[in-house]
Specification:
alpha/beta; two-stranded antiparallel sheet; 7 strands; 22% strand
Length: 162
């Protein structure tokens, strides 16, 4: 099964995980009037290229203390990614950052996210080496959360829903 994890901001990333193989891409963006924006056609091409079975999209919200312009831009990026996934009819699971980080036992520290991703995919640790690679780490950890959740759900069904 080819699963895609998406950290939707303009500094976010997309991770494609198929078995133990990981491929990461920084979020495709274009510059429009001096502002970076997520590029829908490039995102759609990337998703088609990797033949996604399911996507896990971080369900973001405005961050306390940020300005209205920044919050609007972040919301625009999320909506655009969600729209591309819908247009391509890719089944999608939305998850809030608080839910997946708690389930994986990681703090809000982005450096820790990179370290956890390096341990989970040691052969691909170079993908998470730089401080700015936290979006890649988050995208991979979203997939890890989804897979762990799927195993728990399957086990609950086998136990008769107990």
């Amino acid at each position: 099964m080819n699963i895609c994890g998406i950290d939707p901001g303009v500094c976010g990333a997309i991770a494609f995980v198929n078995g133990g193989r990981v491929v990461c891409h920084d979020m495709p963006t274009v510059e429009i009037r001096g502002k970076r924006r997520v590029c829908a056609p490039m995102l759609a091409a990337l998703l088609r290229e990797h033949a996604i079975d399911h996507a896990v999209l971080e369900e973001v919200q405005g961050v306390q203390g940020t300005g209205a312009t920044s919050a609007f831009s972040f919301g625009r990026s999320f909506g655009l990614v969600e729209g591309v996934l819908a247009a391509l009819a890719i089944p999608t699971t939305l998850v809030r950052p608080q839910a997946w980080t708690k389930a994986l036992g990681v703090s809000r520290d982005k450096g820790q996210h990179r370290q956890v991703a390096m341990r989970a995919w040691p052969a691909d640790a170079g993908l998470f080496a730089r401080v700015k690679d936290d979006g890649r780490a988050d995208a991979c950890l979203l997939v890890q959360w989804y897979l762990a959740r799927s195993v728990r759900i399957a086990a609950a069904f086998e136990d008769g829903g107990r």
